[in-house]
Write a structure and sequence with these properties.
single chain; mainly alpha
Amino acid sequence: MTKVNREIVVSEALDLLDEVGLDTVSTRRLAKRLGVEQPSLYWYFRTKKDLLAAMAEAAMAPHASARLPTPDDDWHDWFLDNTRSFRRTLLMRRDGARLHAGSTPTNDLDRIRRKMDFLISSGVPERDAQMAMLAAGRFTVGSVLEEQAEQADAGSDRPADMPVIDHESAFEAGLTLILDGLVHRTATLNVQ
């Protein structure tokens, strides 16, 4: 029997995710991969939902450890960089957007507060900062979800007249629209 701990279980679960995709990840497959009996996984995770939450948290580690903004940062550039970092992180794992969707970043709340405080101290109204971060996050998850779904279907027959989407360009265009809207709204509110 293989000696395991919580970190090994999560790491192996993420490797399994990359190999077979989210729909095929199961505690039975994971236990077999680890060389343990399936019930032993419940020592670390009471439910599959708990395991998926831990996987989502671990998968977001590159973004969660990215540099936080400093008072000297330009908020426009930071907003773009932060959202791009989120996208890159989601793309690092097969079905990364699906894994992340609906998860609650419980261990990232302090970082989220610091990001919000930075935007607010940069002159972005609090409600607009909240909505912009939410909109950018959901836009990013949706964009990556579409991109990863297309990658998963790459082997299927594609109609000859169907345009090929440059996902990165489409993402950048949408991100620019979100930022431009936030800049315009912030400038308008700060003038009044």
